[in-house]
Design goal:
The chain is an alpha/beta fold. The protein folds into two domains: about 270 residues, Aldehyde Dehydrogenase, Chain A, domain 1 (3-Layer(aba) Sandwich), CATH 3.40.605; about 190 residues, Aldehyde Dehydrogenase, Chain A, domain 2, CATH 3.40.309.10. Helices cover about 40% and strands about 20% of the residues. The protein contains 14 helices and 22 strands. The chain has a seven-stranded mixed beta sheet, sandwiched between helices. Helix 6 links the parallel strand 8 and strand 9. Helix 3 runs antiparallel to helix 6. The longest helix is centred in the N-terminal third of the chain and has 21 residues. The radius of gyration is 23 Å and the shape is globular. The N and C termini lie far apart (about 65 Å).
Length: about 475
């Protein structure tokens, strides 16, 4: 079995090792063992990265679409070749099953391939004013990007943060999560090995508040891209506003699932239970609040409980495992707190609700039902393997609950009524809606939310446009 990666920073084409720097211990969530020590950037490292980003941007912005496409297509091919090794690294660092990790690597490869094509379709237009005049509308790269990625998708999130800026002609400084550094470095290495010039994409790690304040205080950075919690996102938005930097914010959610009495309940259960336990529920679009019409509530709840109890939980490297551990010690603690409060408020604990084993960060698939609206878990994203199933009278009450919170990332609805499908999809307040499906993403589809779940989109043509500015040139 291959050893764990040699961790480093990647600045201006150089792998920067520990030296005298502070370090962060990277832990295997399946057993609590330390995988390696990650060097953390100091102020001099960040200044060097900023200088390289400014210098490389002046060159990369003038690269041809064919050059950018060549790098992105090359990186996609390398991701396919290195998929097994990268997936294993992701499982070691984050805990998700190998099957999920392999799918994630393919997602990044597909995204890079998509942007390889999309960067050749950055079109402008000409406005004819008369025989002696014309106006030209062009789209140009916004400039160096500071990108912050969380740990729950160790390759997918860095891939999103790197693909669009590179396709647009921007340079990018990536700060991926300290818990999952080797995965992010693996994605970056594919781009570098595919011919990306030194300094166009760099990776730094460090104390998050130190890194974000330092990078966002620099006039070099012209755009912030962040995926993470709403509280941190609001803080970073304020920092970016000081210099009027463009922002793309993909923040937290609390995914409602509306199950109507005419739904195919078996299909809804098979789909949405599987989606709930994906990555141990540590997914920003994870379905969480199951808003079920009264006539099918008992059947849906009981079917969900059965599926939760039959789920095989274990280390992600075990092919038999269907759900791995949570990613760090903070998550089981949060689950215990939320479950205890829900029960204290009068909710029912139908299954789960406790840790599994005496090593690692495993938590049992948990189903709560008939939970009062003022319980913490009804208002705070659990970000874990906890499903809340409550009965509601009718469509009006179900929509009111779905839209009650200030979050609006992903929502799901299950009904066979085509008129209701259109009506509820229109009325629900979310950036992405799944109708009789849990599949709400794709390389060609915009990914983002509304309200406290953020603004702007990643993926699709919208993700590329977010890294471009519009310029109108008027000629007389």
């Amino acid at each position: 079995m291959e050893p764990y990666a040699d961790l480093c920073l990647h600045i201006d084409g150089e792998r920067v090792g520990r030296g005298a720097r502070r370090v962060f211990p990277v832990v295997n969530p399946a057993n609590g063992e330390i995988l390696g020590e990650l060097p953390l950037a100091d102020a001099a490292d960040l200044d060097r990265a900023l200088d390289a980003a400014a210098r490389s941007y002046r060159e990369w912005r003038h690269s041809t679409p064919q050059q950018r496409a060549g790098v992105l297509n090359g990186a996609a091919r390398l991701l396919h070749e290195r998929a097994d090794a990268l997936a294993r690294t992701m499982t070691l660092e984050e805990g998700k099953t190998l099957a999920e990790a392999r799918i994630e690597v393919m997602m990044v490869a597909g995204l890079f391939a998509f942007y390889a094509g999309e960067c050749q379709r950055i079109y402008g237009r000409m406005l004819v004013r008369g025989s002696e005049q014309r106006s030209i509308v062009t789209h140009e790269p916004v400039g160096p990007v500071a990108a912050f990625a969380p740990w729950n998708f160790p390759a997918g999130n860095p891939g999103r943060k790197l693909g669009a800026p590179i396709a647009a002609g921007c340079s990018v400084i990536l700060k991926a999560a300290e818990e999952t550094p080797a995965s992010a470095l693996g994605v970056l290495q594919c781009l570098i090995d595919a011919g990306l010039p030194n300094g166009v994409a760099q990776s730094v790690f460090g104390v998050p508040d130190e890194v974000s304040r330092h990078l966002l205080a620099s006039p070099v950075i012209r755009k912030l891209s962040f995926t993470g919690s709403t509280s941190v996102g609001r803080h970073l938005t304020k920092l970016a506003a000081e210099d009027m930097k463009r922002t793309t914010m993909e923040l937290g959610g609390h995914g409602p699932v509306l199950v109507f009495d005419d739904a195919d309940v078996t299909r809804a259960l098979d789909t949405m239970a599987t989606s709930k336990w994906r990555n141990a529920g540590q997914v920003c679009v994870s379905p969480t609040r199951y808003i079920v019409q009264q006539d099918v509530f008992a059947r849906f709840r009981d079917g969900f409980i059965e599926r939760a109890r039959n789920l095989r939980v274990g280390g992600g490297l075990d092919p038999a495992s269907q759900m791995g551990p949570m990613a760090n010690a903070r998550r089981p603690e949060a689950m215990e707190r939320l479950v205890a409060d829900a029960v204290a408020q009068g909710g029912r604990l139908d299954t789960g609700g406790q840790r599994i084993g005496n090593q690692g960060f495993f938590f049992a698939p948990t189903v709560l039902s008939e939970v009062p609206v003022d319980a913490q878990v009804m208002n705070e994203e659990p970000f874990g393997p906890v499903a809340i199933i409550n009965p509601y009278r009718d469509e009006e009450a179900m929509l009111a609950e779905a839209n009650r919170l200030p979050y609006g990332l992903a929502a799901y609805l299950w009904t066979e009524d085509s008129r209701r499908q259109k009506r509820v999809a229109r009325e629900i307040e979310a950036g992405m809606v799944g109708v009789n499906t849990s599949m709400i993403g794709g390389a060609d589809s915009p990914f983002g939310g509304v309200k406290w779940s953020g603004h702007g989109s990643e993926d699709g043509m919208e993700g590329l446009q977010a890294c471009l500015i519009t310029k109108a040139v008027h000629e007389g």
